[in-house]
Structures are given as structure tokens and as C-alpha cells.
């Protein structure tokens, strides 16, 4: 970080004291994250913020660790997903870019306490901010000499049946997922990172997402009116996360990828005008859940587990319903489960007057072929497909965590 940047960020003594204190805490917390051996022993550290719940109270997620925050982290209310093309000229400039992103993310996530705020838009400790950096397959072309280090399964996102992909909202060299409890914190981070990296990376596309409040309780609803995010792997279980989310030293991937994860982003537009004409009972059969409660069709409460073994012909839960295809709950399909972390988007009206509402579908997994692509294949041609239209997104590999104060994003990838 240049002197002018340091000066701009540290203007008064009180704030400087705060930042020094926070730096000490961050450094101490990082002890033990220094080696790959330590990786296996790490718990899923980002599930809950350091102090209390983010929802309306003070909370800050640690920046350092074996894995990046923003993956197993309890979902914040707002998200910005931005894909960038890298403009750096060579490997040295790319390394500088990654170091700058690390330094800025470290500062931004540390936040400032309300009493220290000088600039109203600055993220505060209670914003529960996470900044999660991924790389796309195009970064491994011939610009930076990285072709031999590409994560084995990282390809450009293929076009699936029923996709209507707009090339201007697909792919990218980098993906940044910025999540926080308040939308101004997300925007502040975008502005800061754009300013600090000017000329080294250029935004390619952006999707802003948010969660609706729970109505009346439980999981929040997307714009199809159903509760979404009811079932997900257990992020508190490091065994489960090691099985489904994190790339491991034994995954047959380049060594530097251990602790990272494959991220799939899909911008999926809802055909709400058509959907809203479908009677509720038919909508429930399409999803396999009750609209009001979120319960599976053979259950009563949101958290009840469906038992498909008692319904082999799909009389209660149609065989082609969304949840039954996505997760048939068989021993053979257990390995294809993935961690969903999606957000709603509202893009206003299209030029033809139709509503541009949908989902920024986001998921994380250890193996994008075994998990997302396999699940997507099972969902191909499902009744829901008539009412949704995937228009963009990409495949990315989210880098392993920044281990400590001396580490930086992509150090394992870029060190010679
Ligand atoms: C390839 C993976 C998935 C895509 C793409 C996807 C799109 C999608 N989903 C909804 C709405 C709901 N999905 C629900 C459950 C659910 N969806 C997936 C996967 C994909 N969804 C999974 C693995 C599951 C869990 C299935 C289970 O274990 O039972 C639900 C039900 C509530 C829930 O469990 O979260 C809803 C509602 C939309 C609208 C959509 C694309 C437009
Ligand atoms: Fe789904």
C-alpha cells in the first residue's frame, strides 16, 4: 500500500490506535494457520461472527484462516457479485494486484467502530462483511504463465439446456463476492477496491443480491414465493465441509488449491408473469414443498425431512419435482450435494415491460463436475424450467484462505 493510501486511511490518532489494536488481534488469531498440515485441523471457522449475530448487532468475521470467509459464513442480508477482467500486463503486476486486494480486504473487513467513523459510508464492525475472491479459467491462459497451475476442473461455465446466456454477463478472470448486513457496506467495498486497483482490473459484470425478511418465520422467500435455503449441508461440521466443500490435499488437484472451493454463479431470471398464473397447488408440485409453510409435501413443518422411499411412484412428491430431482436422498446421489448461498435480485423492468426478477444462484463445492454439473443434469427439463431462464454467471475457483498477516490472496498460485 502506498504512503498516500496509508495516510488517507489513517487520519486521526484515535482511529490509528483503533487500527493498531485490531491489527494485533488479527495477527494473534492467525497463529497456527501457517501450514497445509494445519489446514485439515481447522474447524469451519466462519460460521458465526466474532461477536454475536450479525443481524442487527455487532459482528465481525475473521479475515485470516485456512479458508476464505463468505462460504460457510451464515448468509448476510446483502451481496454484490462482481466479475472482473484482469488488465495487469504480466505475472509481477498480477501479483501486485492480488497483494493490493489482500491489503484492502484486510483493512475493510477490520472495519471501524461507530465512534471512529469519519466517513459515513465506511463499513463498521457490525456490518458482518466478507470479501471472497475467486479466479476464472481465463486467468490460466498464456498471459501470466499459469496454464500449468489451473485447478483441474476449472473450465468456462458450459451452456446447459434451457440456458439463454448473455455473453456480457458470463465468465471473467476474477470473481468477487462481497457480503454484508447493509447495502452501503457492500457498495463502499466495491468503490474502495475499484479505486485501489484502478487500471489493473476492469469490471465485466455485476449482480447485486439481497434476502427478503422471513415471512412469517424460517427460511426467507425468493420471488417465486417459496421459502428457499431450507436444506443445505451442515456448515458447522468440518467433516461435512471437507467432504463436500473444500478441495483437499488428496483431491488430485494442484497442491496450491487445498482449502479452496469451486464457486458456481448462475443469474437465473424468473418468468414471474407466467408463474403468477399457475395455481398454488400446481406450483407446490413443481417444487415439492408447500408454499405457505415450506414443508415437504409428505410433511407438516419446514424442517421435516421428506421420505421418498415411502413414495416410490411420486404420488405425494412428484418424481420430477425440483427438490426430489435436486436431492433424491439416495446413497448414490449423496456425493453430489453442494452448499447453496444464493440471493434474490431485482433488475427492474425489461425494455418490453416485463419484470426482471430472479436469483443469483451461488453454490460452493469440492468438485464442480461431481456436484453442480451432475445436479444440473438431473434438473434438466424439470417442470420449473418453463418458468426460469438462466442468463449469465460463471465457474470460478475460490482461493484458499489468507493464512496470516504475512500471507496474501493467491500466494500459493503465484509464488514461483
Ligand atoms: C443445480 C442446482 C440448483 C439450481 C440451479 C437451483 C435453482 C433454483 N432453485 C429454486 C428454488 C428452490 N430450490 C430448493 C431446493 C433446492 N435446490 C437445489 C439445487 C438447485 N436449485 C437443492 C440442492 C435444493 C435442496 C433440495 C433438498 O435437499 O431437499 C427449494 C426448496 C427449499 C430448500 O430446500 O431450499 C426452492 C424453493 C429456484 C427458484 C431456482 C432457480 C430459478
Ligand atoms: Fe433449487
From TrEMBL:
Per the record, the coiled-coil ranges are: none
Under the heading InterPro entries, the entry gives: Dimeric_a/b-barrel, Dyp_perox_C, Dyp_perox_N, Dyp_peroxidase, EfeB/EfeN, TAT_signal
Q: Which family does it belong to?
A: Belongs to the DyP-type peroxidase family.
> In what residue span(s) does the Dyp-type peroxidase C-terminal domain sit?
220-402
The protein's name in its UniProt record = Deferrochelatase
Query: What keywords sit in the KW lines?
Result: Heme, Iron, Lyase, Metal-binding, Oxidoreductase, Peroxidase, Signal
What the protein does comes down to: Involved in the recovery of exogenous heme iron. Extracts iron from heme while preserving the protoporphyrin ring intact.
* Pfam families to which the protein is assigned, alphabetical: Dyp_perox_C (PF20628), Dyp_perox_N (PF04261)
EC number(s) reported in the record: 1.11.1.-
Q: What SUPFAM superfamilies does UniProt report for this protein, alphabetically? A: Dimeric alpha+beta barrel
Where does the record place the Dyp-type peroxidase N-terminal domain? 68-210
Give the superkingdom in one word: Bacteria
